[in-house]
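Support case: user asked for a sample of complex input and structure output to validate their parser. Sending the pair below.
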Amino acid sequence: EDKVVQSPLSLVVHEGDTVTLNCSYEVTNFRSLLWYKQEKKAPTFLFMLTSSGIEKKSGRLSSILDKKELSSILNITATQTGDSAIYLCAVEANAGGTSYGKLTFGQGTILTVHP
Amino acid sequence: DTGVSQDPRHKITKRGQNVTFRCDPISEHNRLYWYRQTLGQGPEFLTYFQNEAQLEKSRLLSDRFSAERPKGSFSTLEIQRTEQGDSAMYLCASTRQRTGNTGELFFGEGSRLTVL
């Protein structure tokens, strides 16, 4: 059974700090790893990673995948109070050569950024 | 608003009652998913539709659960004889089929079920 573990489970920082969130996975026939941000209700997409060692970047957020170590990190620099949210990591497996969006999520990291 | 919409947003019911949730996906999306999220956990896959065909169901989806997408547009998730363990947020997501990786799923804001 596919499995995703995130660490830490929660993190409290002050504005301006840099944080690193971790995600490790076990999946048969890995296809992609995705990061989502969940503020109130709906998870919103951040990144999709398929190739090892290639950094995806969006503003102050960046992420990289290490297929050898079966892990990924999400970095947030110069944190702001608006970054407070649950960050979810998910993996997608190949299914008979096709992809259909069945994601296995980790339990999430709760990030709290204080002013 | 052209996002994924779910209704109702919150449902409180007594154990043993039936409940039905509705999801309206983004209009051009042919793939629709139901996930369930309990407190402190990430979403768990329940089922998936491509157009009107239900192509996979998780073993989490007991025989009390049924999902439909009759015309390949909106979907309903019905839970019969609710139990307290069914209390959770039910999330719907949609995406458009594409070659290669599925990529981004667009989630609705969820329907929170509380079973008393």
